Automatic annotation (TrEMBL):
Species per Swiss-Prot/TrEMBL record: Paranoxybacillus vitaminiphilus
Membrane topology: Peripheral membrane protein
Family according to the record: Belongs to the glycosyltransferase 28 family. MurG subfamily.
Protein's recorded name: UDP-N-acetylglucosamine--N-acetylmuramyl-(pentapeptide) pyrophosphoryl-undecaprenol N-acetylglucosamine transferase
UniProt domain Glycosyltransferase family 28 N-terminal: residue ranges: 5-143
Lineage, broadest ranks: Bacteria, Bacillati, Bacillota, Bacilli, Bacillales
Chief subcellular location: membrane
GO terms under cellular component: plasma membrane
Gene: murG
Length: 357
């Protein structure tokens, strides 16, 4: 009989792409796969493009660290989601559940715990997100991307596996990127990515400096859903996309340097592809500060330059981009020294091992 796994995770692409990396490998090993996600999150859209993975939607509530009237309603949504997840798991009888975190994963981990199904959580950031923090006591194993995260995992559940990078990103073809953007090959390319949901702050400051920057760079800008500026659609040497799926490997291959938020998956992808980065982490005011820690750790290793949002201005942005381009070889050399880490194989081995108990 085929072994069954249920994957979960969502809210932003950072909580889905690891699952997308696992799916082809799990199929190769003969697993039957299904997915539990939310009704409207990005995970639903991303999974709709994947064949043979049934998707079950459940109710989910946002877990916040700050006051909001929805904080009174959302615990009930999480309870409803837990009951739904419990029933799906009871019916589907998976051997194991793998969670990439995000709010939707909490009811799933709880539903698995009530069904006594083993669960593996993967945490991408240095400090665990709120959803993973809540779910950890109920999980069988907690895999981490940064070794220092093990300090935050109680007991002997924590396992360092490293960052999972999708294999298709290695298959990028710069020529296809140039064609897709209609860029010329002679002029350097700056790739700008404000995280999977886009960043208004980065979009605004980039566009305010477009004239100066496009005199030296061609710019491909992933700006997030609903953030295309219609006045700039025909701007020479500037190409905007809301979100890129299949063509992303080609855009990354084409880029000489990158300006990005410091989401864990994105920065490890740029590291693996040896792309010099200027990182503008999400500020402490808007998050728990995990991206600042991610970026600091990369800066310490000499992989990136970092500009904190409080210091972001037209002048500081331009200075940092030109400096990054000038010193690009230094960053590439440092990144070449980083250790290769086959996190995907480690995860697969762990999934197989944990599902046997
Ligand atoms: C605002 C927020 O909560 N951000 C968090 C979220 O970021 P976010 O969802 O932006 O996550 P990451 O930067 O980690 O990953 C984004 C993923 O989406 C992919 N991608 C992106 C754009 C695109 O057009 N196409 C595409 O495929 C990237 O290649 C990458 O694999 O999860 C990360 C991982 O837990 C955290 O570090 C971030 O702090």
């Amino acid at each position: 009989m085929k072994k069954k796994i249920i994957l979960t995770g969502g809210g932003s692409a950072g909580h889905v792409t690891v699952n997308l990396a696992l799916i082809p490998k799990l199929f190769e090993q003969g697993w039957e796969i299904s997915y539990i996600g939310s009704h409207t999150g990005i995970e639903r859209e991303l999974l709709s493009k994947v064949e043979n993975v049934p998707y079950f939607a459940i109710s989910t509530g946002k877990l916040r660290r700050y006051f909001d009237w929805n904080n009174f309603k959302d615990p009930f949504k999480v309870m409803k989601g837990t009951l739904q997840a419990y029933q799906i798991i009871k019916r589907e009888k998976p051997d194991i559940i793998f969670s990439k975190g995000g709010f939707v994963s909490v009811p799933v981990i709880l539903g698995a715990w009530f069904n006594r199904v083993p669960t593996i959580i993967h945490e991408s950031d240095i400090t665990p997100g709120l959803a993973n923090k809540i779910a950890m006591p109920f999980a069988t194993k907690v895999c981490v991307t940064f070794p220092e995260t093990l300090e935050h995992v109680k007991g002997d559940k924590g396992i360092y596996v490293g960052a999972v990078v999708r294999e298709e990103l290695f298959k990028g073809d710069a020529n296809k990127g140039f064609e897709y953007c209609r860029f010329e090959k002679e002029k350097p390319v700056l790739l700008v990515m404000g995280g999977s949901l886009g960043s208004k702050r980065i979009n605004d400051v980039l566009r305010a400096n477009l004239q100066t920057l496009t005199s030296d760079f061609q710019i491909v800008h992933i700006c997030g859903k609903g953030n295309i500026d219609p006045d700039l659609i025909n701007y020479k040497g500037y190409k905007q996309f809301e979100y890129v799926s299949d063509e992303l490997p080609h855009l990354m291959a084409m880029a000489d340097i990158v300006l990005s938020r410091a989401g864990s998956n994105s920065i490890f992808e740029f590291l693996t592809l040896r792309k010099p980065m200027l990182l503008i982490p999400l500020s402490k005011g808007a998050s728990r500060g995990d991206q600042i820690l991610n970026a600091r750790s990369f800066q310490k290793a000499g992989y990136c330059e970092m500009l904190i949002e409080e210091d972001l201005s037209n002048e500081s942005l331009l200075k940092a981009i030109y400096q990054l381009y000038r010193d690009r070889q230094k960053y590439i050399d440092n990144m070449k020294k980083s250790e290769a880490n086959d996190a995907l194989s480690k995860l697969l081995a762990l999934i197989n091992e944990s599902s046997q108990k």
